[in-house]
Amino acid sequence: MSTAPSPALTLRDGGQADLGEVMTSMIEAFAPEFGEAWTAAQCGGILPLPGVRLILAKLGTTPAGFALARVIAGEAELLLLGVRPRFRRGGIGGALLVATVAYAREAGADHIHLEMRDGNPALSLYRTAGFVQIGRRPRYYRGTDGRLIDALTLSLRLVGAHG
Questions:
Q1: Order of strands across the sheet with 111-117?
Q2: Residue 60: which CATH number?
């Protein structure tokens, strides 16, 4: 019995024409009970702004995930990173994060920041990459059940850091 090789992971820059693909990944990647997913209008609205970059991940021709980031005045922010559940734990999130950090460095950012819901399992990905918690916003997110959840602010120093 032979096994077909897994499709290769590819990353590429995205734009307005890719919003359908982004939304496919977004809807699957972000649990609806937390209300964290952005709408297509929100994503489309930020894409034309200076310093914004959308990175798409595909396995073969299948959308697997995406990252959305921006760099402004020497600071970078990872706005969204999502991997479709069936593709998790395969290195896609890490590849998107590495590409986003590389973009931030190339764009001259000193740090890259992100904010996430406390309890989000992606925290381990960010900690492994060297992000440290620098803040907490109590009761920042509201779940669809009305429950309030803290937001964690994480940062990675890029200047003088290697990797």
A1: 9-14, 52-59, 62-72, 75-83, 111-117, 148-157, 132-142
A2: 3.40.630.30
